[in-house]
C-alpha cells in the first residue's frame, strides 16, 4: 500500500517535472505565398549548424556569426541564401520551384520531409477534401487514399460510417484506425468539425504505424487542425453550406394494383409508405473562424454550427462546435506552448430506421389511420393509426416515425497543452498533456398508444421510456525528446524517444420503465415516477457499468538516419502495456524498420523529379474490445424461489491470464515516381495478423460448464496492392485539368482459426432463423457468402429447386449440413470488394473550377435480405407487401435463402460534382476573397444491384425483428444488406466562402 | 556537448524511474462479478417462501440450472418434443423455416450441427458444473445428497439423449468420453449413494439416507431420487441391453406406498387465472389434472420434484410464446406477441377420447375468442369475418403450413396478462408418472400387459374415463402418451416401445442409429479430439 502510494506520488512528480524546463540567435518564420512552411532546412552556410522550421514555419539558429549566410532549402521550392548582417529576426518567403510536392508530413511524434519518408503514408490537405455537406471528418477522405475504405451505407447523417484501412486487420480488436488529433491519441473524429481540419495524414503500413504500438493495427489517422500564423493581421473567414437531400434508389416494391393482382389482402386504401416516412431534408452549415498573430503568439478560434436533417422523418442532428488554438513563444522562442481546446454539443434525433424497413414491408392497401380501415378498428388505442394486429413483425411505419421519440445529446470537452522546449540546437523536449470528458444521454419514449415497443395492445401495460447515459474520461500524458543532428553532408540523424500514458474511465447507466397511464397524451419520459412498473420491480430493466483504470502505458524510441541525402533509414521500437491483457501477458514490443532510397539521385533520369523506392517492416498490435475479457465472470443466482439466499453461478466466460495483444506484422514495398505532368505511387504489402482475439467455444464438459473463453485464436494473412496516379492533362495559363486515380485491392485469408470452421450471420425471423450465410473456414478467404444454389426451377409448391452441387444424387441443403461432406453448399459471392477506386477530375479555368469525383467498388456481392424475406409470393402471408425487383418471379412462393438472393454489387458512382466561382477582388478591399460553389453529392450510380445501396457492407449488426435492437458488429460477416439499412440520398449543396 | 550529455542522462533517468513508478496496469473489474460468493441470506417467511421450502446457499445455483431449457425454446424441451409425434414446428410460409432445423428435428434427419442439440448439451453441463462447485463447498450431508441427485439427473438426460458423454465429477477437470453403459452405472450408483442403499429392492430401508422425506417439491428428497432411478431402470434395456424391470417397479412402488403424495383429483383445485372477467363460460376454478399444471400449481400434492418458474425471478418457461398464434395475445391479454411455432399433430390430438378431461386441459382447439369473449379476428386477412381457429388438421409440415392450423398445447395453461416468462412449475417427477412407471414395469416383468390395468385405470379415472378391462402394449403406450403429453417424455417412450423408427405424418426416416442424438459438432471441435461422434452420424 505504502509502496503504491509512493509510486503514485513519484509518478505525479514526473508529470509535473516534464512541464518545468529551463531556457537559451537568429529566428524567423519561413513562408510561401500560401502561408508558413514547416520543415524547411535552414543551415549556416559552410557549417553543419542547421535547423528545420517547425509546424508554424518558425526556426531558431544559435551560434550564428553576424556575417554568416543562411541557406533556406525545401523540396519543391527554390533554395534561397540570405546574409544575416547582424539581424536577429529573418523572415523569408520561398518561391515554389517545380511541382507542388507536399514537403512536410506529420508522422506521429513529429514530422518528416516528404522525400525522406520510408513508409506508406498518404497526406491529404484541405484543397483535396471532398466537398458538399460533410457530416463527419471521415467523409472528407472517402475515396482519396488508396487502401482506405470509408462507407456510410445509405448515408444516415447520424451514422459515422465504417473506416477500414487495407481491409480487416483485426478480428477482436478495434477495426477502425487510431485517430490522433493534434498529437493526442485515441480521439474521435466526431469531436473535430470537418471545417477546422487543415490536413489529414494516414499512416498505412506497419512500419509507419508501429510507433503507436498496440492500437495501430488498423492504421493511424493523424489530424492537424488549422491554426493562426505569426505576424498575421486579424482576419475572419466565413464558410456556409446549404443543402437539400432526397431519398433515391429505394427498394422496389409493389403498389396497390400490383399487390392485389398478386393475391394481396385488400385493406381498402392506397398508401405509398416510403413516401410517407421520408422527406426532403434540409441542411445548413455555418463556420466562422477568426485568426491572427503577433510576433510571439498566434491564435485561431472557430465556431461551427450544423443543422442536418435526415431523409427519414424526425431524424437528423444539430451540432455546435467551438475550437480554439493558441500558440505562444517564450525565452527567445526556446519554449513554445501550444494550447488546443474544443467543445462539441450535439443533439441528435436518431429516428427509427425501422420505419424504413416496415415501409417496404407494409401492406400498400393499408390505411395510415385506423378510421380508414375497412372494418371497425379501435383507432384510439393506437393513437389514431392503423395497425395489422394478427401479423408477426408488422408495424405501421408512420406510427413508428411520428409517435415515438429516439433522441440523444452528447457533450464533449477536450483540451491539450503541448510544451516544447529547445534545450540545445539539436535537442528538444516535448510534454503533451490532454484530457477529454464526454457525456452522452440518449432516451427513447414510446407512448401508450405506440404498437411498436409501446405495448399499445397490452391491456394494462402501455408505454415505455428508455434512458441511457454514459460518461467517458480520457487522460493523456506524453513526454518525449527529439535529437536532431546533421553531422556532415553525408549523414544526418534524428532520434525521438519518450513515454506515453493514457487512462480511460467509463461509466454507463441504463433504465427502462413502462406502464404509463393510458388515454393521456403526455410524454411520460419526464415523469417516470408514474410508471406502474415501479410497483413491481421485476418489470423495471436497469443496467449499469463502469470501466475504470483502463490504461495504456508505453515507452518508445525512433531513429531517422539519412545518408548522402538519398538513402533513408528509419527504425522504431515501442514497448507497451495495456490493462486489458491477461495478467501474465501485459506487455508487448512493437518494432519496425524501414529503408528508402532516392534512386534518381544516382540515376539522374531526364525529366524525372522523383524516383524513390522504399521497403518497410513493422509490428503493430490491437487490444481487446473491452476491459476484463481475460478475467472470468460469474452470475448471481438466487434461490430456486428467487428469494432468501444467493450464490455465484457459472458465468459466461472462462479466465485467460495469457490473453495478449493481437499482433500484425506487415511488410510494405513502395515506389514513388514523379516527372513533368505525371506522378504515381505504388504500394505492395503482405500482412500477417497473428493471435487475433475471439471468443472461442470451449468444451463445456471439461471447463466447468463455461462455454466460451477469449483466446488468441487465429491468424489472417492479407496481400494487397495500391496505386495512386496523378496526371496534368492540360496545364497552361488559362486552363488546368488534373486527373487523379487511386485504386486498391487486397485479399484476406483465414490461415488459422481455433474456433473451428463454421457459418455465421443468421438471416433471422420470420422463417430464416438458423440460416447462416457467411463462411468462416480455415484456409479460405474471409467474407465469403455461403449457401445452396438455385437451379432456376421451381416445384409445384412454389419452392425453389436447389442444385445437387456435389452430384451425389441427393440435394442436402438444410442449414445443419452447411459444412457437411454431403451438403450441397458453395461460395455464392464475396462480401469484400476486389477493387475499390476513387477517380478525381479537377478543372480550373479563369475564376471557375470544376471538381468531379467518381467512386467505385467492384467484385463484391451482397445478400439482398429484403428479397429473401419478401420477394417470394407467399400466399399465406399476403398481408406483407412484396419486394418487386427485376429479379422477382411470380412462381417462387417459398422464402428460402439461396444463390438467387446473392447479387453482384459492382458500382461506379458520381459521388461528388462541384462547380465553384472565385470572385476577383482587390487586395485592399474589405472582403479579401469570396467563392461560391454548387455541389451535388451522389448524382448517379451505375450498378446492377437491385437493393437500396450497392456499397459494400463491411460488417454485420445481426438479425433484427419484431422491434428488437441491433447487436454488436461481426467483422467476419461482410456482404449482408440488412433490412434496417438507411436509404440512399442525393444532396445538392450551395457553398459560400468569404474572407475578411 | 557536455550539457547535452547531462541532459540525456537526466532524461534517461526520468524514463527509467517511470518504468518503476508509472507502469501500473492492474485492472479491477468494477461492473462484473469476478470472485465467487455464497450467502444463505435471511429466510423470507412471507407468503409462499416459508423458511426451508426453497433451496438455499451453494445449492441454489445448482437448482436454478434446472430451469435452463426445460420449458423453453431451443434446448432440451424442444429436442424431446419436436422429435416426437406430439408436436412439430411447421414452416408457415415465410415464417419458421429457420434453415430447416426444426423440419430435420421432426423428420429425424438431424445432424451434429443442429443448434438446439448444442444448447441442450451446454445446459446439461452447466448444471453439472454448478453441482460440482456446490459439492466442493461446505455442504451438509443432506445437501450433498441433493447435489448428487441433481447431477445424476443431468447425466440421465445426457445418457438418454447422447449416450456417450464425459463424466465430470469435479471442477475444472476433464475425463474421457464414457460408453453409455458406464454412464448408466454412474447415474445408478450416484442415486443409490444419495439414498444410502446398495441396491433398490422390494424391502429396502432408506433410514440411512441423507435425503429427507419432506413434501417440498423444490428440494430433492428420497422420493425424488427414487423417481429418477425409476426412469433410469425403466429404460435400462435401451441404455445397456439389460432390462431392470424389478428395480423400476420397486422404486415406483416405494414412492406410492411411502410418499406423502396423492393424485390431484376432484377436490384438488386452484383459481383459474385465465378466467376472463366478461366471459361467463371460463371456469372460475381449475381442478384435477388441469390444476397440476396451472400457473398457480405451486405445492400441488402430486408434485414430487418440480422446477420452480416464475415470471420475474425465475424465468425460462415460455410456452405461451412458443405455441400460440399472434392473435391469441388478445385472448389472454398477454404482455408480448406470441411466435406461432409449435403445433400439435392431428393424430396425437385425436387419440384422446372426447370425454377425456385431459383433452380440454391439454389443448387449445377450435375458434378463438378475445379478451371480452367476442370472436378473435384475424386482422391480417381482408375478410373481417375470419375468426382465428386452431384446426386439428395441419395442412402440411412445409412450406406452407397454414398459420392457424394445428391445435396448440396449453397443458401448462396460460394466465391473463401473462408475461413471456410463465409462472407454472414444471414436474421432473410427479405421482401420475410414477403410477404409470410402476404399471409398465410390472406388466413387462410379468410379460402380461393386463398387470398394468389397476394403475392405468387409476389414472383414467382421474381423467374422467371408464376403466379398461384389458390392455396391450400399444394401448398402454397410448395411455401413457395422453397422460404425459408436454412433459418431455415422449421421445424416450417412443424409443422404449420400439416406435421411434415408425413412420407418422410427414416423418418417415427409420435409421436405427438415431435412438441417440449426435454429439454436437461444436463440442467435438472444442474438445480437441477427446469427444468422438456417435456411430451413424
TrEMBL record, chain A:
SUPFAM superfamilies: Carboxypeptidase regulatory domain-like (SSF49464), Porins (SSF56935). InterPro entries: Beta-barrel_TonB, Beta-barrel_TonB_sf, CarboxyPept-like_regulatory, Plug_dom, Plug_dom_sf, TonB-dep_OMP_SusC/RagA, TonB-dep_OMP_SusC/RagA_CS, TonB-dep_rcpt-like. Residues 408-939 form the TonB-dependent receptor-like beta-barrel domain. It is found in: Cell outer membrane. Residues 115-220 form the TonB-dependent receptor plug domain. Its main location: membrane. Gene3D superfamilies: Carboxypeptidase-like, regulatory domain (2.60.40.1120), TonB-dependent receptor, beta-barrel domain (2.40.170.20), TonB-dependent receptor, plug domain (2.170.130.10). Residues 1-23 form the signal peptide. Keywords: Cell outer membrane, Membrane, Signal, TonB box, Transmembrane, Transmembrane beta strand, Transport. It is a multi-pass membrane protein. Belongs to the TonB-dependent receptor family. NCBIfam families: OMP_RagA_SusC (TIGR04056), SusC_RagA_signa (TIGR04057). This is SusC/RagA family TonB-linked outer membrane protein.
